[in-house]
Write a structure and sequence with these properties.
Number of strands: 10
Number of helices: 19
Radius of gyration: 35 Å
Largest sheet: 6 strands, mixed
Strand order of the largest sheet: 6-7-8-3-9-10
Distance between the termini: 44 Å
Length: about 600
C-alpha cells in the first residue's frame, strides 16, 4: 500500500448527501412517523378552530342553535384526542427509527474501526473515535428522533392555519400573514448570516477543545506536575478560549435580531396587531366582530411554529456536520487483506530494503535490511526521531511499508491474515494501557479464553502476583478506582503478564522500563526476561545499559541503519553507538 501525501486544503465541513445516505436504512420508518406528525399538527389546530367557530355561532344565533355549538365542542375535543394519539404514534416511530439508526451506525463504525490500520489510531487519537461514535451520532439522533417530526409540525400547522384564516376573511388574513412574512424577511437573513459566518468556526473550535480535553485527561499526571507551563495544558486553555471567543462573537451577531424577531412575533404583539386590524375593519364596517374571532383564536399563535422551524435549522446543520464526519471516518481504507493468505513458518523476521514515509517526500525509514533471528534479543537504539518506534510498529502492520517488504517466517506480513499476525506479536508499549476493569480481566486480554489459574501463572511470571493479592479485592480489584492504585512499574508488569499469557512467539518491547522506579525496574527486567525466553524479541531502548547483553544491537540515525553488532563490537568501532554510550555514562556520573 502506498502512502499518498495529505491534501493541501481543508475539505468542506458539510458534504452533500452525507446525511441522506446515513439515515437511508431508517427512512421508511421515519417517513411514517413524519406523516403521523403532520396529521397530528392538523388535528392540533381543530380545538382553536372549534373555539372560534363556536364563538361565531353564538354571536350570530345566540343560544338558538345549541346543537351547532355542541358540534364544535365535540370537534374540538376529538381534535385534541386525535392530536395526542397521533403525536404519541409519531414520537414512538421516530424514536424507534432513532434507536435503529444509532445501533446500525455505531455497529458499522465499530466494525469499520476494527479493520483500520493501528497506525490510524496512533495518528488520530481517541478524540476522533469519540467524536464519530458518540458526538456525531448524537447530533444526527436529534434530527431523527425529534427534529424531523417537529419540522413537519412546524410546516403543516401554519399552512393549515393560513388556509383557515384566508377562508374566514382573505383581507385580514393577508395583513396578518404579510406582517409575519415581512418581519421574517427582514430579520431572518441577518440571523442566517451570523449563523453561517460563525458555525464553521464554532465546530472547528469545539473539535479542537474535544481533542485537547482527551489529551489533557490522558496525561493528567504529567500536566499536574508541570502545571500551567505544560504545553498540553496551554493547548487546552487556548482551545477553551477560542471556543469562548467564537461563542461570544456568534451571540453578538445573532442575539439582537433573534431577540427582536421573538418580540415582534410574540403572542402579545400578534394580539395587538390583530386587534388593531380587526378593530379598524369593524369600525369601517368592512367586517363584523364575528369575523375577527378566528384571527384572535388562531392567528395569535401563527408565528410560533414558524419560529420553531427556524430553531430546527440548527439541528439540521448539526446533523449534516455529524453525518459528514462519520462519512469521512468510514471512508478511510481498511487494512488490506491478501486474496492469497500465507502463514508464517517460524518466527524469523526480515526487513528487506524497507522504506516508509508518513506522507509527503520525507521518509521515516530508508533502505533498511536486517534480520531478527528466533531465540535472540535485538535491541533498537538511536537518537530521538531516528525511526525506532516506526521500525517496531511496522512489524504488526500499524502501517504498510512504502517500498521493500517485511517477512515473518518467510511470509510477507501483508499476506498473513491480520488476526494471525496480531496473535503472533506481543507488544508491550512504553505508554501503559489498562482498561477500567478488574486486574484479572486486564491480564486476560492477552488470551480471552484463559482460565483463572493461567491468569495467575502469568502474573507470577511477571513478578506481580504478590502485589495483586495485596489489593483490596485481589484479582477482582477494579483498576483506576481509588482502592486499586498501582505504581508505574506495577502497572507495567500487569501489561507484561498480559503479554506472557498471550504466549506470542514474537515480542516487541517499547522502552518497557521507562516508568519504573529503581526498585520496580529490577522486577520489570525479571519479568521481561521471562517474557522473552525462547522468542524473537525486539527491544526499543533509550537507556543503553539495559540492552548491553543483547544478541544484536541496531543503531538507527535519521531513518537509516547506521550500525549493527554486539555491545563491545560497537564500542570498538567508536561510532554513533559509542558516542551515545559515553554521553549516558557522563550523565550517570554527574548524577543526572
Amino acid at each position: 500500500m502506498t502512502h499518498e501525501p495529505p491534501p493541501t486544503g481543508h475539505p468542506p465541513l458539510v458534504e452533500p448527501g452525507a446525511l441522506k445516505t446515513l439515515i437511508a436504512p431508517v427512512r421508511g420508518t421515519l417517513i411514517v412517523g413524519v406523516v403521523l406528525a403532520g396529521l397530528s399538527s392538523a388535528c392540533a389546530l381543530l380545538p382553536y378552530v372549534a373555539v372560534a367557530e363556536a364563538g361565531r355561532t353564538l354571536l350570530a344565533h345566540g343560544t338558538d342553535d345549541p346543537g351547532a355549538v355542541w358540534a364544535w365542542v365535540v370537534t374540538g375535543v376529538a381534535g385534541a384526542v386525535l392530536r395526542s394519539l397521533l403525536y404519541v404514534g409519531a414520537t414512538q416511530l421516530c424514536h424507534y427509527a432513532d434507536a435503529e439508526f444509532r445501533y446500525r451506525t455505531r455497529s458499522r463504525l465499530a466494525h469499520h474501526l476494527g479493520t483500520l490500520p493501528l497506525g490510524w489510531f496512533a495518528a488520530n487519537g481517541s478524540g476522533e473515535v469519540k467524536k464519530a461514535v458518540s458526538d456525531d451520532v448524537r447530533q444526527v439522533h436529534t434530527l431523527v428522533a425529534h427534529a424531523a417530526a417537529d419540522l413537519t409540525s412546524g410546516v403543516v400547522m401554519p399552512l393549515a392555519a393560513a388556509v383557515y384564516l384566508f377562508i374566514a376573511d382573505w383581507r385580514i388574513a393577508l395583513l396578518v400573514v404579510a406582517y409575519v412574512a415581512v418581519t421574517l424577511a427582514v430579520l431572518v437573513p441577518r440571523i442566517q448570516s451570523g449563523f453561517q459566518r460563525n458555525m464553521d468556526a464554532y465546530n472547528k473550535a469545539q473539535g479542537d477543545l474535544t481533542r485537547a480535553t482527551v489529551e489533557l485527561s490522558d496525561g493528567i499526571e504529567v500536566i499536574k506536575t508541570y502545571g500551567a507551563t505544560s504545553r498540553t495544558f496551554r493547548r487546552f486553555t487556548d482551545a477553551a478560549d477560542r471556543l469562548t471567543t467564537v461563542c461570544l462573537r456568534w451571540m453578538d451577531g445573532i442575539g439582537r435580531p433573534t431577540n427582536l424577531i421573538n418580540t415582534l412575533l410574540s403572542p402579545a404583539t400578534m394580539l395587538v396587531w390583530i386587534a388593531a386590524v380587526g378593530t379598524a375593519f369593524v369600525a369601517w364596517d368592512w367586517a363584523g366582530p364575528a369575523t375577527v374571532l378566528p384571527f384572535l383564536a388562531v392567528g395569535v399563535g401563527l408565528p410560533s411554529t414558524v419560529l420553531n422551524v427556524a430553531q430546527l435549522g440548527y439541528a439540521i446543520r448539526d446533523a449534516q456536520l455529524g453525518a459528514t464526519h462519520i462519512r469521512r471516518v468510514m471512508s478511510h481504507a481498511p487494512l488490506a487483506e491478501s486474496e492469497r493468505p500465507a502463514l508464517p513458518d517460524g518466527n524469523r523476521i526480515a526487513f528487506e530494503d524497507v522504506s516508509f514515509g508518513y506522507g509527503g517526500d520525507a521518509l521515516a525509514l530508508r533502505d533498511v535490511s536486517v534480520t531478527l533471528e528466533p531465540g535472540t534479543v535485538t535491541a533498537l537504539v538511536g537518537p530521538s526521531g531516528s525511526g525506532k518506534t516506526t521500525f517496531a510498529r511496522l512489524i504488526p502492520r500499524f502501517w504498510d511499508v512504502t517500498s521493500g517488504r517485511i517477512t515473518l517466517g518467510g511470509a510477507d506480513i501483508r499476506e498473513i491474515p491480520t488476526e494471525k499476525l496480531l496473535g503472533t506479536v506481543a507488544f508491550v508499549f512504553q505508554e501503559v494501557v489498562l482498561l477500567r476493569a478488574t486486574v484479572r480481566e486486564n491480564i486476560r486480554l492477552g488470551r480471552p479464553g484463559a482460565g483463572d489459574d493461567e491468569v495467575e501463572a502469568a502474573a507470577r511470571a511477571a513478578q506481580i502476583h504478590d502485589v495483586v493479592t495485596a489489593l483490596p479485592d485481589g484479582y477482582d480489584t477494579v483498576l483506576e478506582d481509588g482502592e486499586g492504585e498501582l505504581s508505574g512499574g506495577e502497572r507495567q508488569r500487569i501489561t507484561i503478564a498480559r503479554a506472557i499469557l498471550q504466549d506470542a512467539p514474537v515480542v516487541i518491547l517499547d522502552e518497557a522500563t521507562a516508568h519504573a522506579d529503581p526498585h520496580s525496574e529490577a522486577r520489570v527486567q525479571q519479568a521481561l526476561s521471562e517474557l522473552g525466553r525462547e522468542r524473537t524479541v525486539l527491544v526499543i531502548a533509550h537507556r543503553l545499559h539495559t540492552v548491553a547483553d543483547a544478541d544484536q544491537i541496531l543503531v538507527l540515525d535519521h531513518g537509516r541503519l547506521a550500525e549493527r553488532g554486539r555491545h563491545m563490537e560497537l564500542l570498538a568501532t567508536d561510532g554513533l553507538y559509542a558516542r551515545l554510550w559515553r554521553s549516558q555514562e557522563s550523565l550517570q556520573e554527574a548524577g543526572l
